[in-house]
Design brief:
Blueprint lengths: L36 E4 L4 E4 L16 H29 L1 E2 L2 E2 L2 H23 L13 E3 L4 H10 L1 H20 L1 H4 L5 H23 L10 H20 L8 H15 L6 H10 L16 H30 L5 H20 L6 E3 L1 H10 L4 H16 L1 H7 L4 H26 L3 H16 L12 H7 L3 H15 L6 H18 L1
Antiparallel strand pairs: 1-2, 3-4, 5-6
Length: 508
């Protein structure tokens, strides 16, 4: 029998089988009717060529621009502050050739950070060669590297740039060879990493929930604005109809922003200062910092890149599970890691920025809204690029109070946990998986709650694991996954049966 199969929209060529030949002969020709669908043989999928708002729930397809822009803007608002915060913290301690960073240096780095995030997101959506996953993965500067970056930047910013260059290339090469080692990262490991990512972000969400630049953390004004923002998200999601329902985060941010104005939480002076210092349009400075290479710095940062790779695998897996309802493919893992690594190297070497990685908060947004359309999320990437070219745009987004963002992000971070738990359930709760999950959670998360745990260990170990539960969970889960027997031996089954029978007799 002749076989003709083309995958559904949202699948990859690894998921699809296309055969033009049957039992040694061509199939009979058929007259085809005009269709509004086109077949993309490069990707092995059928794409709806018509413009429809329903395509927001499909990986491919055109969405009306007026409808696509708000959904893309949601992703920018969800990650904007988190994207520029690492740069601001690193710049606050950075020294280059013995001279501390100035306010204009910080402003230029923020500008470059937005541009790099937009470029990285575009490449994830629309890959270049084998670099990019072709998934709705939003990229941004990573908090995972923050401790190591601040340590190196305080010594000399050039050391940080050199370590990022080497470490990024190593991760990128690992991505290109993912098919040889991807099988060692079992589904239970990915599930543990995704779940831990959600738990690790809860403190960030709650901290933002109770904070602002005007009132102290936990002040009733901050909590009131955050609660109003959260309530606006929930009410809008409950009452809205159709695709408008998924814009609840954007609606909550708008309501929270308006309320925060009455409490004096919004400071527009940063926009004025930005225009005075950089102008309306400004190109980022390229190759502003000369890289310096030191073996210790390279090793420490490369280890963090491996942890970031685990996070990226977890994030892209969560996107596939929560947004597309399927498992991630080797091609997508390879492309995602390639983008993570090589674009990080470009981020450091060309733009002078810290590494970039997939943003977990945007994974949560995809899981909650089910909006996976690449064309739609592309507008978020373009917004980031525009913000990098027009400094006042970025300055405006930076005026969003933390408590407004916290009112929205707590939902998204919770959605990541739910995605992780779903993946755990799909792995099955047999004895082996239960031991792996329980042990990795207990050790990986537990050690971060006891700072003295690393007091007798080398500083590099503390830098990697002390404040990063994802790193600990990943390492422990990988070790257990590779060492624990996958199948129970026959004699063990017999012994277990005999023991069960003896126990039953005793109970009788």
């Amino acid at each position: 029998m002749n076989t003709y199969t083309i995958g559904e929209a949202g699948t990859t060529d690894s998921d699809c089988h296309f055969s033009l030949f049957g039992q040694g002969r061509y199939p009979p020709r058929k007259r085809l009717r005009p269709s509004n669908k086109r077949r993309n043989f490069n990707e092995g999928q059928e794409i709806n060529a018509s413009v429809s708002v329903d395509n927001i729930y499909k990986l491919d397809g055109r969405v009306p621009v007026a409808k696509a822009i708000p959904f893309g803007l949601q992703h920018v608002l969800a990650m904007f502050v988190a994207n520029v915060t690492p740069v601001m913290l690193i710049a606050s301690v950075a020294v280059y050739n013995g001279v501390a960073f100035t306010a204009i240096d910080t402003a230029l780095l923020i500008q470059a950070a937005m541009l790099v995030a937009g470029i990285g997101t575009l490449i994830q959506l629309y890959p270049i060669w084998r670099i990019g996953s072709r998934l709705p993965v939003v990229m941004g500067l990573s908090f995972t590297f923050l401790s190591a970056m601040m340590t190196l930047a305080a010594r000399d910013y050039g050391l940080m740039i050199g370590a990022v260059l080497v470490g990024g290339c190593i991760e990128g090469l690992l991505g290109m060879t993912a098919k040889y080692w991807r099988r060692f990262v079992s589904p239970i490991v990915s599930a543990c990493v995704v779940t831990t990512i959600g738990f690790s972000l809860l403190s960030t969400g709650i901290s933002s929930f109770a904070s602002s630049s005007v009132y102290p953390t936990g002040a009733w004004q901050n909590l009131l604005v955050a609660v109003i923002t959260l309530a606006a998200c929930l009410i809008y999601n409950s009452l809205a109809k159709g695709f408008w329902k998924q814009l609840y985060v954007l609606f909550g941010l708008i309501v929270g922003y308006i309320v925060s104005l009455f409490f004096g939480m919004v400071d527009f002076s940063s926009m004025k200062n930005t225009v005075q210092e950089l102008g309306i349009i400004a190109l980022p400075k390229l190759f502003a910092y000369t890289p310096k290479f030191e073996i210790g710095a390279i090793v420490s940062v490369t280890l963090v890149f491996l942890v970031s790779a685990a996070e990226t695998i977890g994030d892209t897996s969560a996107v596939c599970t929560g947004g597309l309802g399927r498992e991630i493919t080797e091609k997508e893992v390879s492309g995602s890691l390639g983008c993570d690594g090589f674009i990080s190297a470009i981020s450091g070497g060309v733009f002078g920025c810290p590494p970039i990685t997939s943003f977990s908060q945007n994974v949560g947004l995809v899981a909650m809204t089910k909006v996976v359309n690449r064309f739609t999320i592309m507008f978020g990437a373009l917004t980031l690029i525009l913000a990098g070219l027009f400094p006042p745009v970025g300055a405006f987004f930076s005026t969003l109070p933390d408590c407004v963002l916290g009112g929205c992000t707590v939902i998204m971070f919770g959605a990541i946990i739910v995605s992780g738990v779903t993946m755990l359930g799909e792995c099955g709760f047999d004895q082996r998986n239960t031991i792996i999950a329980a042990t990795s959670f207990a050790i990986g998360i537990g050690v971060t709650q006891v700072p003295e745990f690393f007091s007798g260990m080398p500083q590099i170990v503390s830098d990697i694991f002390a404040n990063n539960p994802v790193a600990g969970v990943f390492v422990v889960a990988m070790i257990l996954s590779l060492t624990l027997p996958k199948k129970v031996k026959a004699e063990d089954v017999g012994a277990l049966t005999e023991e069960t029978m003896d126990t039953s007799e005793m109970e009788k």
